Amino acid sequence: MVETLLQPDNGHVPDRTRSSGDSIIIRMRNLTIKHNDSTLIGSIDLDIPGQRATAILGPEASGKSIFLKSINRLNDIDRCIRTSGSILFNGIDIYNKDIDISALRQQIGYIARIPHVFPRSVFDNIAFGPRLRGIRRRARLETIVERALSRARLWLEMKNELKKNALLFTPELQQRICIARALALDPEILMFDEPAIPLDSPSTSVIQELIRDLSHDCTVIFATRNGRFAARSSDYAVFMVGGSVVEHSDTKTIFTRPAHRETEDYITSP
Amino acid sequence: MLSMSVAIVITILGSTVVALPLGLACAVAMVMVLRDKPRLLVGHSLKILSGLPTITIGIMLLVIMPQLQLNSSHISIIVILVVGSPMFIVGIIIICDILTSKTSWEIRRITRPIITTVIMIAGISALVSLSQKIGEMAFPSVRNAMALSLLIGFMAIPTVIHVSADSLSSAVSRFRSASYALGATRSETLAHILIPASRRGILGALFLGTTRSITEIMAIHLSGASSSVTAWSDQTADHLEFILKSVIRVGNLVTGEGNATFSYPDIPVIFIIATTTIFGELAARHTRSRAARSMMGDSVAS
Question: What's the ipTM?
Answer without folding.
Answer: 0.88
